[in-house]
Structures are given as structure tokens and as C-alpha cells.
Amino acid sequence: MEHTMIIVTGATGQLGRQVVERLLTRVPADRVGVSVRDPEKAKAFADRGVRVRQGSFTDPAGLAHAFEGATQVLIVSVDKMGEEAVRQHRAAIDGAVAAGARRILYTSHMGAAASSHFEPCRDHAATEEALRASGVPFTSLRNGFYATSAMQFLGGALQSGQIVLPADGPVSWTAHADLAEAAAAVLADEGRFDGPTPPLTAGQALTFDDIARVATEATGRTFTRSTATDDGFRQQLVGHGVPAETANQLLGVFAAGRAGEFATVDPTLAALLGREPITLGTVLREQLSENGGR
Ligand SMILES: NC(=O)c1ccc[n+]([C@@H]2O[C@H](COP(=O)([O-])OP(=O)(O)OC[C@H]3O[C@@H](n4cnc5c(N)ncnc54)[C@H](OP(=O)(O)O)[C@@H]3O)[C@@H](O)[C@H]2O)c1
């Protein structure tokens, strides 16, 4: 059998951890490695025969060891925004090229575009440019918007029933578990997608009006949705200690949503999974039961 080595970064994060879990159902453990900032947090993978090496995108020299022998590297995008994020992603791409990887995969976002209203989508577009410029074949997994992000926006509304958010647009909220399964399927079937994938989304695009209705049906309690002004929402966030820059970035989600940037529903994720993706309603019901909110 041809020798392959798939390296996954961010494997101690929510998405990367699940990607490795799903990958281990398809690929022998000795063909999987993780590059993580804190190897102690990846001990459970090491115990299962996965190669665990320390690597951070802020230490480009150290990536040579972390990515050594890689045939594919999955770069999980970092939890930063703007130039800092793109700089770190470039360091990871350079590290994968230097290691001789023959394909680089990257967790991008649906709607990645230089003109996006949402800063991370502009960062993803810049990273995709860097991937193109690398000269190495790449696959950019254009992940749908995390359903967990919708839960974060709902926040205390899950208890109060009052959803007060800026005007929005439909978003095809998608579960981490499905995106992880899809990433593992693409890694295990090298070259199945080349360049940016179609948007990897769940089967429905919902507004917060729709989510209020779904929550009402799920709980039998009444959920109402009312509209905050963008300025009012910004002030409220800043009043709760959110830095102004972060507040503006969060408002970008709503501006991009209103512009329809996250409205696409695409069948590619379902095809990769061989089943319908998890719905926002399912994620919401899980969250409500964790909160004891039924
Ligand atoms: N599609 C969407 O809707 C959406 C929404 C939010 C975010 N995202 C993007 O998707 C990514 C993965 O999501 P997630 O839920 O798994 O987030 P997460 O749990 O915050 O995981 C982020 C991962 O990136 C790693 N990381 C951060 N800085 C790094 C660096 N300098 N070098 C190497 N690794 C670094 C973290 O390492 P540690 O474990 O050591 O902290 C962590 O494992 C996020 O980071 C973000 O870029 C997408």
C-alpha cells in the first residue's frame, strides 16, 4: 500500500478533534498525524497510535517537524481575524509546501469573497489566494455557518424566549459533526475536490424568525423575535465588555446575512455524508435540553 500521512492541525479544537475521530474510521491510525499547540491535550489520540507533534502557525520553523512526511495537510483555520489570521494561514501553507505535501486542505467558509460584509470571509478569500499561489494542489472546504454560532447569538434568549437581534437574512446553519465527517471523507478520498468546494451546507436556510418558530414548536414555550438596530446591538455588546472590533465583526454576520451571503443550500454535503445533514432544529433541541430549557 502506498505510504500516506495525513496531518490535521487544530486537532484539539471542536472541529479538528471530530475530523480526526471520523478519519480514524477510514484510515489506519499510523497514517494520521496531528499538529497541535499543546500535545498534552491530544494525548488520547497518541494513545490510539496517532502521531502527535507540537506545531503552531506562529512558529513557522517548528512546522517542519510537525508536518514531516505529510502527503496531505488539513489546515484548520485559526480563531483570529484580519491580517493576523491570514499571516498564520500563510505560515501553515508554507510549512505544508516545505514538507512536500502533495495536497493542502483548508477549512474555508461559504461566501468566502474579498467583497464579503463578514471579515472572516474576506480572510478566507485571502487564504484561498495564498493556496492558489502555493503551486500545490489544494482543496478549500467551504464550510457552512456553524449551527453553534446561531446558539451563541441566541444566548440568553433560550431562557427568556425573547430573541432580540439585528435584521438578518437566511443562513444555512450547519453542524460541526457533519462538517467534520465531510472533511474526513474528502481527506480519505484524496483529490475528490480540487480548489474551493461548493458550499457545504445543511438542507435549509433559516432566519431568526424561522428559528423562533422552530424553538416554539420544540419547547411549547413562546419564542418571539424582535429587531434591534445595528447601533443598539453594538452598544449592547460593548456594554457587556465585548471589544468594539469584535462587536463590529459580529454585526458583519447580520450585514452579510441580509446580503444573502449565507443563504445558499447545496446538496454536496448530503452527498458526502450519504444522508441528510443535521438540521438547525436538532442542534437547537440538543442545546435546549442541555440548558434544561424544555
Ligand atoms: N464555519 C463557521 O461558521 C465558523 C464559525 C466560527 C469559526 N470558524 C472557523 O473554524 C475554525 C475551527 O472551528 P472550531 O469550532 O474547531 O474552533 P476552535 O475550537 O476554536 O478551534 C480552533 C483551533 O485552532 C487552533 N489554533 C489557534 N491558533 C493556532 C495557531 N497559531 N497554530 C495552530 N493552531 C492554532 C486551536 O488550537 P488550541 O486547541 O491549542 O487552542 C484550535 O484547535 C475556527 O478557528 C475558525 O477559523 C468557522
TrEMBL record:
<dbReference type="Pfam" id="PF05368">
    <property type="entry name" value="NmrA"/>
</dbReference>
<dbReference type="InterPro" id="IPR036291">
    <property type="entry name" value="NAD(P)-bd_dom_sf"/>
</dbReference>
<dbReference type="InterPro" id="IPR008030">
    <property type="entry name" value="NmrA-like"/>
</dbReference>
<dbReference type="InterPro" id="IPR052718">
    <property type="entry name" value="NmrA-type_oxidoreductase"/>
</dbReference>
<protein>
    <submittedName>
        <fullName>NmrA family transcriptional regulator</fullName>
    </submittedName>
</protein>
<feature type="domain" description="NmrA-like">
    <location>
        <begin position="4"/>
        <end position="269"/>
    </location>
</feature>
